[in-house]
Amino acid sequence: MQAETARDVDGVPPSFREAAGFWLQLGFVSFGGPAGQIAIMHREVIERRRWLAEREFTDALNFCMLLPGPEALQLAIYLGWRLHGTRGGLAAGLGFILPAIAIMLALSFAYVSYGGLPSAQGLLLGLKSSVVAIVLVAVWRIGRRALGRPLYLVLAVGAFLGMAVLDVPFPVIILVAAATGALLAPGPAAAGIPVPGRASRRGRAWRVLAAGVLLWVLPWLLTGTALGFGSLWARSYVFFTQAALVTFGGAYAVLGYVTRHLVENFGWVSAAQSVAGLALAETTPGPLVIVLQFMGFMAGWNHGAPLPAPVSALLAALLSCWATFLPSFVFIFLGAPYVERIAHEPRLAGALAAVTAAVVGIIATLALMIARLVLLPQGADGSVDPVALAIASGVLLLLRSRLGLPWILALAAGAGLACQLLGLA
């Protein structure tokens, strides 16, 4: 089903080739996390090129925030669908993530090949220290926006205690928060907003769902048949799929959930490797949840037998990527015809607000874990690493400036390298 041509805008809708080129270009320059990526899309698609109307962009963004998964990627898929239908959505989504996938693969191989060298350790020290500051700022910014009501503060504190103290599963926290927000949301359901005819939308939904299920099942069957359904690769594929379905709140929230399972339950990666992965993900364009590709890569590298470690790591990384990003395409192609109605549904908005509040607490647990690993490398009984603390403090100050995140990360990495060479780290 093709999307309707954009209306009520002054610009001329682009050709498919022009739009596809734009999405690929965006994939190489989309630094700054979801907020920065969404701002770039708004500036280029709405303000400069005027391909779509402001209302279409806003409704799509509200819809994407209701979904699990990286909202910037989902927004790109929807905008591409709005311009050129299904092929437009595929071009937009793939253009947005393929550069990040390729760059993260290169960084992953560099990490396992050179991560033990003193110079690389210095660079990683700077990047990991910067992650401490970045996650703390994320907690503050999201919390300042999301905790405007006493209920939301209670949900945030409850989520923190549930994850950090009571070991409540991440999906349970999300479901409880969503149910609470939906039950307490005021106002009637949205009405008067047209949606496609029942027969046409039902047939289309079933086709999209069938295609999505088939695209998920095929890699699982091939992997399980070749390597065993109890192998690391088949099990990690299922696990990363589960993670993708509960990634409300973005990479910071899901990384705490993934790290807890991969490090503590499965023993596939180390906590230090997970922090290094987040540091590397911060340096790449595209969705920050690309960190899950690194986690899959390291699981395959650490437990590759009977495959050679490079082959095992590459296979595990690609499977984690497929499991992480496929649901976003399916969600958008399923929901795209109903965006205007869904975006104005009060109970869904209430659920989203409550989930966002809970995510603040979940990200706080991630911040605590990262701070312990980076600032207290010898454990809680050890002393604070003065170099890591100094770099993290410097990054905190720079994040309040107009300096772009890539430059801040470069300065942090340079500072870590300098301290390593001077014998201070």
Keywords summarizing the entry:
425 residues, mainly alpha
Please provide a brief summary of the model.
Helix content is 75%, strand content 0%.
Structure description:
- The chain is an all-alpha fold and 425 residues long.
- It has one domain.
- Helices cover 75% and strands 0% of the residues.
- Helix 5 packs across helix 11, helix 5 crosses helix 16 and helix 8 runs antiparallel to helix 9.
- The radius of gyration is 22 Å and the shape is globular.
- The N and C termini lie far apart (58 Å).
Sheet with the most strands, sense and barrel status: none
Mean pLDDT: 84
- Low-confidence blocks of residues: 1-8, 189-195
Counting DSSP H or I runs of 4 or more residues, the number of helices is: 17
Beta-strand content bin:
under 5%
Give the helix proportion (percent range). Answer: over 70%
Radius of gyration over C-alpha positions, nearest whole angstrom:
22 Å
Intertermini distance? 58 Å
Principal-axis shape equals globular
Secondary-structure element pattern, one letter each: HHHHHHHHHHHHHHHHH
Count of domain modules: 1
State the secondary-structure class: mainly alpha
Number of strands: 0
